[in-house]
């Protein structure tokens, strides 16, 4: 019975462990599904820019970097974004205007982004007229499943050396990132720009970094210039700045219109100021009035042509801006659609993977359960056989011991019977002897008792006779000498005379009344218990 209870407890504990293991795997699967749903349901918007704390939420972040027209100078720009731990859709835009001349070295490095995202990277640069261009773009592994639209553009740059280094460190968060750092027009100078974004822990962040102009003459470097634009800018280097700005408007798609017009107007003012400075020098060298008049008319015509050309340029810029906006919108919709399709495929693959893992776990658990059940059954069968074997051995042992005990009991009973038989014969003989002796003693005792009884009767009779005679003699003497009662002090009537144990005589009524108070003789103070009236032969028992 104890073995069966132990087996039952073992089976119960085994099934309980299997049940809790199944619950644990189901809980993990539910957590994975919830995480996938959270990754696909990011609804918050964050405008994220430099010097921000960690972002650990489900949010949408748009990142845009635009730089206004840079005329000349030596600029070193370094942009670094530290790890952002979320799974996100990142839209990164950097723009650069047309660069006329100078040496350009562009290096862009993207360090590992360890989030689940899909990345669409677009980098455009306006026309570059002349100069040496070195562009290096390196993209290290990106292991995420979010949609990232990256566009880098630079505003118009006339001349100088520009060195731009952009590095983006791992981004591991569940959000879409929009980051907008913008720089105002930089004319001349050394600029060291460092952009760092630390992790951000909230949902809505608006951050903007604006760098003020610095007035030193340096060179300027930026990134990824296409060969066609470089050839076009080389041919258009001797044209007007307004015409050069037409080419740069292609790369400035997402900038505000007011900023676009301010940049174009600044560009035209710069070119016009250079043209006006060259014309008066020619007039000063001639020295005659007709030449001055022709130069003034020529200047007026140039001004009119510039106005007409500026109007045409403005219209063309607006049309180009509209076309660029349409292209950007179409590209954005296409990227969004591709991202949604990738997310859908990713979710389907994830669901299939989870289902496959769940089926595999179920199969493994089923195999484990079957193995455990088989082991339990084998253990039960083995224990059952062991129990049956032990019971059989126990029964055989008990049977042998029972037979041995019966044999011993039989032998012992035979010995006891023989001993009892001899004892019975001996006792019977002893009883016969004792019976004869007892009968003899009984006869002797009866005879002795008979003789003693006869003798005792004779003695009693003789004593009674003697006492009777003595009492009669003593009574007669007392009657003769004592006729007065000591209680009432009267003479005792013969008919009322009573005697107590001490043989004193009193009136019967007096001694009876006296005995009710106290049972001592009034004469000798001895106790008495009987009052005898000889006339009536009445014996009164005194109650004490």
UniProtKB/TrEMBL annotation:
Keywords: Coiled coil, Metal-binding, Zinc, Zinc-finger. Residues 35-45 have a biased composition (Low complexity). Residues 46-94, 172-187, 194-242, 257-289 have a biased composition (Polar residues). Pfam families: zf-RING_2. SMART domains: RING. This is RING-type domain-containing protein. GO terms for molecular function: zinc ion binding. Residues 485-525 form the RING-type domain. Residues 35-94, 172-242, 257-294, 456-475 are annotated as: Disordered. Signal peptide: none annotated. Residues 323-357 form a coiled coil. It comes from Dictyostelium purpureum (Slime mold). The keyword Metal-binding applies. PANTHER family: ATAXIN 7, ISOFORM A, HPC2-RELATED DOMAIN-CONTAINING PROTEIN.
């Amino acid at each position: 019975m104890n073995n069966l209870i132990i087996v039952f407890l073992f089976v119960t504990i085994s099934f309980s462990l299997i049940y809790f293991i199944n619950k644990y795997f189901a809980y993990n699967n539910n957590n994975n599904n919830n995480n996938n749903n959270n990754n696909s349901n990011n609804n918050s918007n964050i405008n994220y820019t430099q010097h921000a704390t960690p972002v650990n939420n489900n949010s949408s972040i748009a990142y845009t970097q635009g730089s206004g027209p840079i005329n000349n100078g030596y600029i070193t720009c370094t942009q670094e974004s530290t790890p952002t731990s979320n799974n996100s859709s990142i839209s990164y835009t950097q723009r650069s205007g047309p660069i006329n001349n100078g040496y350009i070295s562009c290096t862009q490095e993207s360090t590992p982004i360890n989030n689940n995202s899909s990345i669409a990277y677009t980098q455009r640069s306006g026309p570059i007229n002349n100069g040496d261009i070195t562009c290096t773009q390196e993209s290290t592994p990106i292991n995420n499943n979010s949609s990232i639209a990256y566009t880098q553009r630079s505003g118009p740059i006339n001349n100088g050396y520009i060195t731009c280094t952009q590095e983006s460190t791992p981004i591991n968060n569940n959000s879409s990132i929009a980051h907008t750092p913008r720089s105002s027009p930089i004319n001349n100078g050394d600029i060291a720009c460092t952009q760092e974004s630390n992790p951000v822990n909230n949902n809505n962040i608006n951050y903007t970094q604006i760098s003020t102009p610095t007035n030193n003459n340096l060179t300027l470097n930026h990134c990824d210039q296409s060969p066609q634009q470089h050839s076009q800018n080389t041919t258009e280097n001797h044209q007007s700045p307004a015409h050069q700005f037409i080419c740069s408007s292609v790369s400035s798609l997402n900038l505000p219109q007011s900023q676009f017009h301010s940049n174009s107007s600044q560009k035209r003012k710069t070119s016009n100021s250079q043209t006006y400075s060259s014309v008066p020098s020619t007039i000063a060298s001639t020295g005659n009035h007709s030449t001055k008049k022709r130069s003034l008319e020529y200047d007026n015509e140039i001004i009119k042509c510039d106005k007409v050309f500026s109007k045409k340029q403005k219209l063309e810029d607006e049309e180009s801006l509209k076309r660029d906006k349409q292209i950007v919108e179409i590209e954005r919709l296409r990227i969004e659609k591709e991202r949604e399709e990738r997310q859908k495929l990713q979710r389907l693959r994830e669901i299939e993977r989870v289902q496959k893992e769940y089926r595999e776990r179920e199969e493994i658990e089923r195999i484990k359960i079957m193995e455990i059940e088989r082991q339990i059954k084998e253990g039960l069968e083995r224990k059952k056989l062991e129990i049956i074997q032990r019971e059989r051995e126990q029964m055989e042992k008990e049977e042998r011991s029972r037979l041995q005990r019966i044999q011993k009991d039989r032998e012992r009973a035979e010995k006891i019977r023989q001993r009892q038989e001899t004892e019975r014969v001996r006792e019977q003989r002893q009883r016969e002897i004792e019976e004869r002796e007892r009968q003899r003693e009984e006869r002797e005792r009866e005879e002795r008792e008979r003789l003693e009884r006869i003798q005792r009767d004779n003695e009693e009779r003789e004593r009674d006779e003697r006492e009777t005679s003595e009492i009669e003699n003593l009574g007669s003497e007392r009657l003769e000498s004592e006729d007065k009662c000591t209680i009432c002090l009267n003479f005792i009537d013969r008919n009322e005379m009573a005697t107590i144990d001490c043989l004193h005589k009193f009136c019967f009524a007096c001694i009876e009344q006296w005995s009710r108070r106290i049972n001592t003789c009034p004469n000798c103070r001895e106790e008495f218990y009987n009052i005898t009236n000889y006339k009536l032969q009445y014996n009164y028992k005194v109650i004490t």
